[in-house]
Amino acid sequence: MKAKPTKEHQWLQRLAGDWTATSDDMPTWSESVRSLDGLWFVAEGQGEMPGGGAATTIMTLGFDPKRSRYIGSWVGSMMSHMWIYEGIVDGNVLTLDTEGPDFWSEGRRAKYQDIITFESDDRRVLTSRMLNEDSTWRHVMKASYQRK
What we know:
- The chain is mainly beta.
- The protein has a single domain, classed as Lipocalin, CATH 2.40.128.20.
- Helix content is about 5%, strand content about 65%.
- It contains 1 helix and 10 strands; from the N terminus they run αββββββββββ.
- The protein has one helix at about 5-15, and strands at about 15-25, 25-35, 40-50, 55-65, 70-75, 85-90, 95-100, 110-120, 125-130, 135-145.
- The protein has a 10-stranded antiparallel barrel.
- The longest helix is centred in the first third of the chain and has 7 residues, at about 5-15.
- It starts with 6 loop residues before the first helix and ends with a strand.
- This is DUF1579 domain-containing protein.
- Pfam families: DUF1579.
């Protein structure tokens, strides 16, 4: 039995294509997003890290109709942790919850959110934030993507 894409998968289809990403604290990156039969989307990014050194990232995103949640993962050549996503869409915003090491407090794990916001079909923003121990959100990074 072959799964068929749903309207939720169609939302992810907007990611497909080639992108240039810029951020205040990182050099320009490129990202290429491809679809696996409209069910899964694989984004491979490449660029330079702050302070130098090449890096590659891979994000996978899909939708699980049984759980009514967007799901996925993120890995990068600059770290050994695999981030596992689960999230929801509200209009043009996909909020992905995940958990991983606290970059500011050794030995502590923290909750994070990666938030993808489409400003248009050719422009999107990725914002990452971490939940502090006092239940406030700490900004981690923001990148703007422009379709090539």
